[in-house]
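Dear colleague,

Thank you for sharing your sequence with our group. We've completed the structure prediction you requested, and as agreed, I am returning the results in plain text so they can be pasted directly into your records. Please verify that the sequence below matches your submission; if there's any discrepancy, let me know and we will rerun it promptly.
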Amino acid sequence: MAQLNEGYIQVYTGDGKGKTTAALGLALRAAGAGLKVYIAQFIKSGDYSEIKALARHAEQIRIEQFGRGRFIKGQPAAEDVAAAQEGLAAIESALTGGEYQLVIMEEGNVAARCGLFPVEAILDLMERKPAAVELVITGRGADPRVIEKADLVTEMQAVKHYYQAGVGARVGIEK
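Please find the predicted structure tokens below.
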């Protein structure tokens, strides 16, 4: 199995589209290089296109969902918090267990902003990340402390979006 000499902490944030797409692209590149990838989705639940596509790479990429697939506004339900806590435990295990070289917290920033777990949980994972593991945290609204601690931060900016232009959904690529 391939190994990384040095893994970085990357954050993909901002109000534009492409954060998850960038992380999944990195996951495919890592799998192609012989690395093992673990992805935890903190908000989504269901049979999304990325779940179907990544199933073809199950030997290299493992993806699990720890969300209930609902928009969280206000105080999260106890079930949402419990699912997120399970996801945090899975991320910690993937990060420190030695099996994976790339670990992705998909919508981790959003989960912290929604109150599913404190941002300190992300900061703790960042602190404890082994040198040979890459950690990617996606989602809009990254806490300034997460941004400061990261090695690479990309902010996706919404310049034009077809929903804003009144065009509507395109050929089912949103899900």
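Summary note from our side: The chain has a mean pLDDT of 90.

Kind regards,
the structure core
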